[in-house]
Amino acid sequence: MTDRTDDDALEGAGIDVSRRGFLRTASLAAGGAALGGAAAAQETPDPLITDVQDWASATGEGVDATPYGLPIRFEGDVVRRTVSWLTADPISSINFTPIHALDGTITPAGCAFERHHSGAIELSKDDYRLMITGLVDRPLVFTWEDLQRFPRENHVYFCECAANSGMEWGGAQLNGAQFTHGMIHNMEYSGIPLRVLLEEAGVQPEGQWIYVEGADASSNGRSMPIEKAMDDVLVALTANGEALRKEHGYPVRLVVPGWEGNMWVKWLRRIGVTHSAVEAREETSKYTDLMPDGRARKWTWAMDAKSVITSPSPQKPITHGTGPLVITGLAWSGRGAVTRVDVSLDGGVNWQEARIGTQGGKYALSRFYLEIDWDGSPMLLQSRATDDTGYVQPTKDALREIRGLNSVYHNNGIQTWAVYENGAVENVEVGS
Amino acid sequence: MTDRTDDDALEGAGIDVSRRGFLRTASLAAGGAALGGAAAAQETPDPLITDVQDWASATGEGVDATPYGLPIRFEGDVVRRTVSWLTADPISSINFTPIHALDGTITPAGCAFERHHSGAIELSKDDYRLMITGLVDRPLVFTWEDLQRFPRENHVYFCECAANSGMEWGGAQLNGAQFTHGMIHNMEYSGIPLRVLLEEAGVQPEGQWIYVEGADASSNGRSMPIEKAMDDVLVALTANGEALRKEHGYPVRLVVPGWEGNMWVKWLRRIGVTHSAVEAREETSKYTDLMPDGRARKWTWAMDAKSVITSPSPQKPITHGTGPLVITGLAWSGRGAVTRVDVSLDGGVNWQEARIGTQGGKYALSRFYLEIDWDGSPMLLQSRATDDTGYVQPTKDALREIRGLNSVYHNNGIQTWAVYENGAVENVEVGS
């Protein structure tokens, strides 16, 4: 880590650290001469470098011994994590994406959020079957190989658990973007439009809903209006190019763009076409929002626009002292595409527009950046997403005013990180 | 696998396989009734399904025991592979992406192509330094932490080895898209525009080239015109969201959009600003193209437009018999974006336009599909990419006419797969 003490030492050694106040620069005596070739370049003296690394002098290891590549050992902390008290048993658990440690927008499958209600089952392609039944002209059963024969599409979509940030309803609780906002991933899914398979079966006029089940013990049954099923839902076979991971529903899962992750049924087994909604467990006692008057909001499928600053954040403090600082984060909307992100350094009093690094498409993560010159004063960092419907991400207090404090799901309120003079970052609440 | 024998057996059992001639469908007695709920759905009798899977009756395994997720064991064949005779020693080797088994456009890092000339070195972030030297006002050394303070961009780019398909110059040799075209990957890279770092150092007017070196023993030094360096080159810190893998140059590599992979220097150590090209080993004796008259083409940096059918292909034969068949593949151009892909079923006599599943941006992979009704006749499958410069991918023979047979690099000729009546696929040559 570079800190001000190191810089002082370098200045004492005659090394220029003045430019923009932070670069650990070395005025190399021989560096000003044009390089005549590789040999000349290697002769350039550089005391700093020979101190730390025995450069370009020894061969590394071969790579072909690794059957499937893994991150380098130095990145062992960049993994999914769970919160042990959140669920009763590891058979029903949640693994959060380490969003604080990632950049760009794609989530690698190896650390991508997943939630399972009765364990991750192992289902081979040979054993796999998908049934379409109910109000259809021709009930069908598809093998995995049958599915290979239908037209496929590719889309980058986010999958967010309805409970993402749910533990923040009552106030700042969890110290890390991974835990407050990590029930989300963003992958390039490829699969067959569900519409194509439903048309193959022939949906009858009275078929106004579908009821979707997985092959795991929970079944995780969910109802969905036929309009969504015939619109952009995918029967997905791959994520980020490769077969789905076991914990993401291998070999086939449903992808329901923009809608809560619980509807993205894994180990997809059956799609029943029905006249009305089933009102099963996962859409009545769960995945509804208890309002202050005792009634529950239901069918709250779409994930409203939301954003979070991933760095700096509690797990990613500022370790380089004052001066240039890159603030970055993620923004998304389950109702369309993000069009703008604003960032506040003072808890929502003043806002400035962030630079969009990746403009995610509909229902995909966007990456934003704001570069500032940090003077070392404490900050209250916030981000605020706007989507192409004109919706602006609200404050937590504005949400609480309407929904009260009974809710678990659908907290898309603005998150606040307090940054202290020493660079440490903490999850805090500010009034709005 | 579903084959015609299976279908016959199903028809004998009274199961309807007539619709479009391939679906393994079951007319379920109870399936026509509306589902009343999860319980009712589970009561639907289905002899096919209970035969193969003890559905929804047992819990799976917890997921949190896995520190970093890996593919399910059934996908153990979807890994990088090398060709043992291709390089003298595993210290200097190549690992090919299993493109035949992937869909969409993103390559997971765990199976993404990599080439190393003196092993994959292990370099920690703390030990990392990047030097900018030569014809600059202020020679600079950046720590990894310094680099975190500069503005970053995110781009999906392909990285293709100049030698990709190089073994095909003399004729069809390797039986698999992984081996003929797998020296490529496509990831979302995030990093700092090299321009920003060069401007920090202050490039002098006589600085017309840069010379880039890695920290591995090979150094892999490459020269590049300053115009490219100041245009779109990135000093990349992450790929697909996470830190670069060791074999992809952890912690920092150069990304040179559209240009041959050898210039994407890994374990990036030094950028020297020079008056002229260094003409080092990797750009004279290697990575040049020996022409029939004994002279060598050099500075052939940009990868010309190219495509390949990934399925069906020799490693991905047709196993489902006649009827609906999805033909799919990848297309790319190092001079811009792919605008169109055509597919031929008869070795280039007739062409039809493929459907673009993902329209890759500049210097990114595109995914194409063509759905056909296969009558079981032999086919000679080819694909042909066109990019936004108007360039059309040539035949191998057209390339050979000009470049002869001495070349190793820059073979972007049209590939041919012979598909036989039994669905097997083979790499073949056809005259053009």
From TrEMBL, chains A, B:
Coiled coil: none annotated. Its cofactor is Mo-molybdopterin. Transmembrane segments: none annotated. One of its GO terms (molecular function) is molybdopterin cofactor binding. The keyword Metal-binding applies. One of its GO terms (biological process) is sulfur compound metabolic process. Residues 297-415 form the Moybdenum cofactor oxidoreductase dimerisation domain. InterPro entries: Ig_E-set, MoCF_OxRdtse_dimer, Mopterin_OxRdtase_euk, OxRdtase_Mopterin-bd_dom, OxRdtase_Mopterin-bd_sf, Sulfite_DH_SoxC, TAT_signal. Keywords: Metal-binding, Molybdenum, Oxidoreductase. Residues 123-277 form the Oxidoreductase molybdopterin-binding domain. PANTHER family: SULFITE OXIDASE, MITOCHONDRIAL, SULFITE REDUCTASE. This is Sulfite dehydrogenase. It comes from Pararhodobacter aggregans.
